[in-house]
Amino acid sequence: MSLKQKASPSSEVNEKMAALITNANAVRAIAAAVEGTLGPKGLDTMLVDQFGDVVITNDGVTILTKMEATHPAAKMLINIAKSQQEEIGDGTTTATIMAGTLVDVGVNQVAKGVPVTWVIQGIKAGIEKACSIIESYKQPIEDLNDERLHQVALVAGREHKDIADLVIEAAKLIGEKKLKDKAFKLSDVILSKENAENQVFMGVIINKDRMNKQMPKYKKDVKVMIIDDALEPEEIEEEALGTESGFAKYLELQNEFRSNIEKIIELGIGLLLVDRGVDDVAEEMLTDAGVIVIQRVSNKELEKAKEHSGAKMIKRTGLKKDKSVLEEYIGYVEEVVSEEKLEQVWIKGGKSKPMATVVVGAATEEVVDERERIAKDAAAAVQSAVKCGVVPGGGALELAVAREMEKVKENTRSMAAFGIDCVIEALKRPLSQIVTNAGFNPLEKLNDVIAAQSKTGKISLGIDCDTGEVADMLELGILDPVLVKVHALKAAGEIAVAILRIDTIIKMKDEKEEDAGAAND
Question: What is the pTM assigned to this prediction?
Answer without folding.
Answer: 0.77
